[in-house]
Write a structure and sequence with these properties.
This protein is an alpha+beta fold and 461 residues long. Strands 1, 2, 3, 4, 5, 6, 7, 8 and 9 form a nine-stranded mixed β-sheet that branches. Helix 2 crosses helix 6 and helix 12 runs antiparallel to helix 13. The chain is globular and about 70 Å long. The N and C termini lie far apart (59 Å). The relative contact order is 0.11.
Length: 461
C-alpha cells in the first residue's frame, strides 16, 4: 500500500487539487453544495457482466474482503496495521452480520458489511445515542466496513453504486431492516447526506471514535420506509444515469446475486466452525479478546460439538446475575401469520412469527396496537406462510404474553410443513445449508431469490 511519503509528485498534485476542491465546496451554501454533489452522480444502468456483487461466503472471498478493508483503513488512519493484514471485528462472527463483496473477473474489488442490531449491539453505539432511532418501528442495522480497491476508486462509482444498490435491496427485501445507521469521517458525511439522504443523529461530532482508531466521526441515519419517496423528490425526472430513485427502487441489475431462499428467513449466516476457527483463532486472536458475556452469547448462538471445539472457552452458561442467557438462533425468521380464536364472530389477528420450534412459536401482532382479543388459554387456528408458496396450518394455544404485542403460542400437533421447516432451520449451519435442505425437501426444486421490491407481508384478513 502506498504511504503519503512515497507518493509520486503527480499523485501529490492530484491530492492537493482534490483537497482544494473540497475546501472550496465548504464555502458554498449547503443547498448549492448538495446540488453540485448530486450532479456528479453517474450510476451505470448496465455494468459489465464481469462485475458481480454477492454475499461473501467462502474463506477466499472473506479473506479478500478483510484484507481490502484492512489496507483501506490503515491508509486512512482508521486502524493500526495488523500482523494478519486483515480487519476482522467481533461483529463479523455473528449471523446478524452480512458481508458482501464486489468482484471483477473473480477478483474482490469492493466490500461492505451490514450489521443488524443483535447480541453485541452495534459498533457505533459506543459513541452515538440511538434511543430515538430504536424508539421507532422496525429493526436497525449499521452499514460498516466499506472499502473499494484503490484501482477502482476513481471510476465514477462503477463499484460503489452496485455495492450500495445491493445494500438497499438486501436490507429492504431480505434483512428485515428499516433503519440504517452509519458512523463516517466528517469529511465524508455530506456525500451520504447529499447522495443517499442520510440525516445526522445529532449536531455534534465525536472527536475520537475508538472503533476507527480515534479518528473523528459523525453519526447519521436513513429510514428505508420513507427513502423511496424522498429519492423520488430529489432525483425524479433526471437522466437515468443520474436518477438514484430509479437506480435503487426500479432498475434490475443481473450483476447482483441476492440470496435464494425457500423460507422467509432474515439472516444469511456463513460462518462454519472451520471459518470461525480460521479468522478468529488462527489468522487473528479475535476470540481471545472477547469478554465473558460475549463468549457465552456465541455458545448460545452456535451450538453443537463442532462449534464448541473452536469457540472461546467460557466459565459458565449463566449470566452475571445467575440467569441463563436467552438462546439465539442462527436463522432468524419473519413468517406472515394469522390466528383465529373463539369469540363473537371469531377473533382474527394478523402478524408474523419471529421464532419457531417443534412445539411452539412467538407470534407478533401487526400492528402492535391490535393485540386485543388474545388471552392466555385460548385455542385457535394458526395459518403461517413459511415461504413462497409454502404454508402450514396448525392448532395453537395462547400460553403467555412475552411482551406487549408478542404472544407465546404452543403447538401440540405440528403439520408436515411445519416439521420440515423446523428441521431445516435446526440442521443448517449456513444459509447455503438451509437452501440445500429446503431444496431437497422440495424434491430438488431450487429456491429463488425474492423479486425486486418484494418482501414477505402479513397474510390478508
Amino acid at each position: 500500500m502506498e504511504s503519503p511519503v512515497s507518493r509520486s509528485p503527480l499523485a501529490l498534485v492530484r491530492h492537493g487539487l482534490r483537497s482544494g476542491l473540497r475546501r472550496a465546496l465548504t464555502l458554498l451554501p449547503r443547498r448549492l453544495r448538495f446540488a453540485l454533489i448530486r450532479r456528479m452522480v453517474v450510476c451505470d444502468p448496465a455494468p459489465p457482466a464481469a462485475l458481480v456483487v454477492k454475499i461473501a461466503e467462502t474463506a477466499e472471498e472473506l479473506e479478500a474482503c478483510f484484507a481490502l478493508l484492512h489496507d483501506a483503513y490503515v491508509h486512512e488512519g482508521f486502524m493500526q496495521p495488523h500482523p494478519s493484514g486483515l480487519r476482522v471485528t467481533p461483529w463479523h462472527a455473528l449471523p446478524t452480520t452480512t458481508t458482501i463483496c464486489a468482484t471483477f473477473d473473480g477478483q474482490v474489488v469492493g466490500t461492505l458489511s451490514m450489521v443488524r442490531e443483535g447480541v453485541f449491539g452495534l459498533p457505533l453505539q459506543s459513541a452515538f445515542e440511538l434511543g430515538h432511532v430504536r424508539a421507532r418501528p422496525g429493526q436497525v442495522a449499521e452499514i460498516s466496513a466499506l472499502a473499494v480497491h484503490r484501482g477502482w476508486r476513481r471510476t465514477g462509482g462503477t463499484v460503489l453504486f452496485p455495492l450500495m444498490k445491493f445494500m438497499y435491496a438486501y436490507c429492504t427485501q431480505h434483512f428485515d431492516t428499516r433503519h440504517l445507521v452509519i458512523a463516517v469521517n466528517p469529511d465524508r458525511i455530506e456525500l451520504y447526506e447529499a447522495l443517499l439522504l442520510f440525516e445526522r443523529l445529532d449536531a455534534r461530532r465525536v472527536d475520537r471514535y475508538a472503533f476507527a482508531n480515534g479518528a473523528p466521526a459523525v453519526g447519521a441515519t436513513l429510514d428505508l420506509a420513507h427513502a423511496p419517496q424522498r429519492f423520488a423528490e430529489v432525483y425524479g425526472g433526471r437522466r437515468r444515469e443520474r436518477d438514484l430513485h430509479h437506480y435503487f427502487t426500479r432498475l434490475q441489475l443481473p450483476n447482483l446475486q441476492l440470496p435464494a431462499r425457500r423460507y422467509f428467513t432474515t439472516n444469511d449466516p456463513v460462518m462454519t466452525p472451520a471459518l470461525l476457527d480460521h479468522f478468529f483463532n488462527r489468522r487473528t486472536a479475535g476470540f481471545a479478546a472477547l469478554n465473558e458475556r460475549q463468549r457465552r452469547l456465541l455458545h448460545q448462538i452456535y451450538d453443537g460439538p463442532a462449534y464448541a471445539a473452536v469457540l472461546p472457552a467460557c466459565e459458565s452458561a449463566a449470566s452475571d446475575d445467575g440467569v441463563r442467557l436467552r438462546c439465539n438462533t442462527r436463522h432468524s425468521i419473519r413468517f406472515p401469520a394469522r390466528i383465529t380464536v373463539p369469540g363473537p364472530g371469531g377473533v382474527r389477528r394478523l402478524g408474523v412469527l419471529r421464532e419457531i420450534s417443534a412445539t411452539g412459536c412467538q407470534f407478533e401482532v401487526v400492528p402492535m396496537g391490535a393485540a386485543q382479543g388474545l388471552a392466555p388459554g385460548q385455542d385457535g387456528a394458526l395459518q403461517v406462510q413459511l415461504g413462497e408458496g409454502l404454508h402450514a396450518e396448525v392448532r395453537a394455544r395462547v400460553v403467555r404474553s412475552v411482551f406487549p404485542g408478542v404472544w407465546g403460542l404452543a403447538v401440540d400437533t405440528p403439520d408436515a410443513a411445519w416439521r420440515r421447516c423446523v428441521a431445516a432451520l435446526e440442521q443448517g449451519q449456513t444459509f447455503r445449508d438451509l437452501a440445500a435442505s429446503a431444496a431437497a425437501d422440495a424434491g430438488g426444486a431450487a429456491p429463488q431469490a425474492a423479486p425486486a421490491g418484494r418482501a414477505p407481508e402479513a397474510l390478508s384478513a
